[in-house]
Design brief:
Structural class: alpha+beta
Strand content: 15-25%
Largest sheet: 6 strands, mixed
Shape: globular
Number of strands: 25
Number of helices: 21
Radius of gyration: 29 Å
Helix content: 25-40%
Low-confidence stretches: 269-273, 348-357
Distance between the termini: 70 Å
Mean pLDDT: 84
Length: 679
């Protein structure tokens, strides 16, 4: 969409909204399109495309025909847009309900529905339904981004297009291509699942997103109809949790303390280390290694962790777990060995995976902007720009298009009237754009799924605000709200509620805490005195942001790695402040960080957001270059191995070489074990 098309669509919308009886195609062609050169057929195609665009923005164009002679003549057909059917109903929220709603919207910071949640909140602000609300102390839950596959599947699900992808079957361990109608997406047992009709097998199937081995291809020219009243949460509730199994692994002595905490040693007979066990056919642990048994439920989940440990661990059994580790290591090594692309970034600026802003984004924003200005007269132009997340120049570009838009006649009273000469924005002529458009299905899903997810936090669910705001938004969303049942969020309640409550109490009272903490990066346990600042989560993994007196700086501590936590009797220092406003960043940049350039495969582009890339550049084929700051680089080879071919280090050269050596040493263990003689 060009800027001129944006203006044309806006004028078409205003004309169709402000006609009682409808406008004929010829009238629209002359007064809105000012079209005198194209053929009737070409104009008809353009008009149909524009009507489709307006439907995507939430406006249904009605067709009105006269009865009697000539009623089937296109020249007599009239078009209009009903003023009420397309508008968001009034939603009045209490401060308590606004608090819950904002928390629900902010769950999706980097997930696929993050921008949809922002748009939905802006619509409520534009309608005057939101009031000032204070977020609760120490509670900032978030949903962990589920990657590019999640985003593609959400888009295909809502547009009702089938998808194609390669999938590693858990029952056979074979990789196969699947053609699926995506009915719903939901989280269960800490994993995201796609539920849909497998067209190749003619039956409903469940697919774990972590088992997708290719990018998702959306078949936009094909469609499907999902089952009526489909509810993905109910479907996933029928899934049984996988049984507990035991893995046998050899681990370097004195290393991997976190793995050892949940493992048990295997008693071995006295033969020389590395000798062959004649009964099992497996070699005994080599010198400097301990043999352990580790409980697990899913080979892919444990395989991801064990692959990150590289040469420090070798899987002895079961074979499917060893295969999961080898597959990740092989994928990472193959990606690291590919030719290096030219490293070039555009001008520095905030990076992200989102597509470049287009005229479609501009028109959608302007449709939110007019009602927002109507309900917020006199705001400073910089504040308006900040509310919409754009620069002042971009906002002024929007306003200039708006003041040139209006009814077909084009008289002064027929145009939108917006003034900002003194840097305070006023609107005096709104042409009936005073109420925002109804929620899209993405916006309804973002808010309603977020509210459903918050139900797992007792301190949020208590008091009735969560239930009441959910009912109000369901009523306002209408049919699009019903479709939100196709998406279900993860659990956000922490595994250790006692640790969470101790931290929350200390934050409220301003008390200092003493903690004993296990750091997997350092593979060590340390004691710290910290000033707690706030708590936040990614799914049900919670973090404590605090000023660490040992490190003399802000640090983020995972609650499930805190072995002991208690007040030390001292008050927290008044000078300790959070790193920034909500949402808190998991990684806080420092001046002495190492700048690392990585290449991300198409399936791994979400890591640019997860690690707050400062610059990105698109690569042919859907991949991405990303420039990321890391405070500690020793764990980066583990990071590369864990993601199994989704990321590789390009610069600095020393880190790139270290990661390749790490992968080679890890793979060498399995090559050696496959060559052992067996009678």
């Amino acid at each position: 969409m060009s800027a001129s098309r944006t203006e044309r669509l806006l004028n078409l919308l205003i004309a169709l909204l402000n006609t009682k009886y409808g406008l004929r195609r010829g009238e629209l062609r002359e007064k809105v399109y000012h079209d005198t050169t194209s053929s009737d057929v070409a104009f008809g195609r353009m008009f149909e495309r524009d009507k489709g665009e307006l439907r995507q923005f939430g406006f249904d164009v009605e067709t009105v025909t006269d009865t009697g002679w000539g009623s089937d003549d296109p020249a007599t057909t009239r078009y209009r847009i009903g003023k009420e059917s397309n508008r968001l109903p009034d939603v009045s929220l209490s401060p308590e309900e606004c608090t819950v709603l904002i928390l629900a919207a902010q769950l999706w910071e980097h997930a696929a529905l993050g921008s949809a949640a922002v748009d939905a909140v802006r619509k409520l602000q534009a309608a005057g339904g939101l009031v000032d609300a204070e977020l609760p102390t120490g509670v900032q839950p978030r949903i962990r981004p589920a990657g590019q596959a999640f985003e593609d599947l959400v888009a295909a699900m809502h547009a009702q297009h089938p998808v194609r992808f390669s999938y590693l079957a858990g029952s056979t361990g074979q990789e196969q291509e699947r053609l699926v109608e995506p009915w719903g997406l939901g989280s269960r047992f800490g994993q995201w699942y796609l539920v849909g009709q497998d067209r190749g097998r003619g039956d409903k199937r469940f697919f774990r997103l972590s088992r997708l081995t290719s990018a998702v291809t959306v078949l936009e020219k094909k469609g499907f109809t999902p089952p009526a009243a489909f509810n993905v949460r109910a479907e996933l509730a029928a899934l049984a949790e996988l049984p507990v199994q035991s893995a046998v692994v050899d681990v370097e002595q004195g290393r991997l303390l976190g793995l050892r905490k949940r493992a048990q040693p295997v008693s071995e007979p006295a033969p020389e280390p590395g000798a062959l066990d004649l009964e099992s056919g497996a070699r005994l642990p080599a010198a400097g290694r301990d043999r352990l048994t580790v409980p697990f439920r899913d080979a892919e989940t444990l395989g991801e962790e064990l692959a990150s440990y590289g040469p420090r661990v070798t899987v002895i059994s079961p074979p499917e777990l060893a295969g999961a580790v080898r597959r990740r290591l092989t994928g990472a090594a193959a990606f690291a060995a590919r030719p290096v692309p030219d490293v070039a970034f555009p001008e520095a600026g905030r990076a992200g995976r989102t597509r470049k802003r287009t005229s479609e984004d501009q028109l959608k924003r302007m449709l939110q902007l007019v009602p927002f200005l109507v309900h917020n007269q006199g705001l400073h132009i910089s504040e308006v720009a900040a509310r919409f997340g754009i620069t002042r120049k971009a906002l002024e570009d929007d306003l200039r298009i708006l003041i040139c838009s209006g009814l077909p006649e084009g008289y002064p009273d027929d145009l939108l009237d917006i003034q900002w000469d003194d840097d305070h924005v006023f609107i005096t002529q709104d042409l009936d754009l005073t109420r925002p458009v109804r929620f899209t299905v993405d916006e309804a899903c973002a808010l309603l799924t977020g509210l459903e997810t918050l139900n797992g936090l007792p301190e949020i669910a208590e008091g009735g605000a969560l239930e009441s705001v959910t009912l109000k938004l369901m009523a306002a969303a209408g049919e699009e709200g019903v479709k939100a049942a196709a998406l279900s969020g993860p659990e956000v309640a922490p595994g250790n509620s006692a640790t969470l409550e101790t931290a929350r109490t200390a934050i409220r009272s301003g008390a200092q805490l003493h903690l004993r903490y296990f750091s997997p990066q350092r593979d060590a346990v340390s004691d710290r005195d910290v000033d707690p600042l706030r708590l936040y989560s990614l799914d049900n993994t919670w973090y404590l942001e605090a000023y660490c007196h040992s490190a003399q700086g802000l640090r983020n501590f995972r609650l499930d790695r805190i072995e002991a936590l208690e007040p030390n009797g001292r008050p927290a220092a008044a000078t300790a402040k959070p790193a920034d406003s909500f949402p808190v960043k998991l990684f806080t940049p420092n001046d002495d960080d190492t700048v690392v350039v990585v290449e991300l495969a198409p399936r791994g582009t979400g890591l640019a957001d997860d690690y707050y890339a400062e610059r990105t550049a698109a690569l042919p084929g859907g991949g991405m270059l990303a420039e990321i700051r890391f405070g500690s680089t020793g764990w980066l080879p583990m990071f590369v191995a864990q993601h199994g071919g989704m990321v590789r280090i390009l610069q600095p050269d020393a880190l790139a070489n270290a990661s390749r050596e790490w992968l080679a040493a890890a793979l060498a263990q399995y090559e050696a074990s496959s060559d052992r003689p067996i009678d």
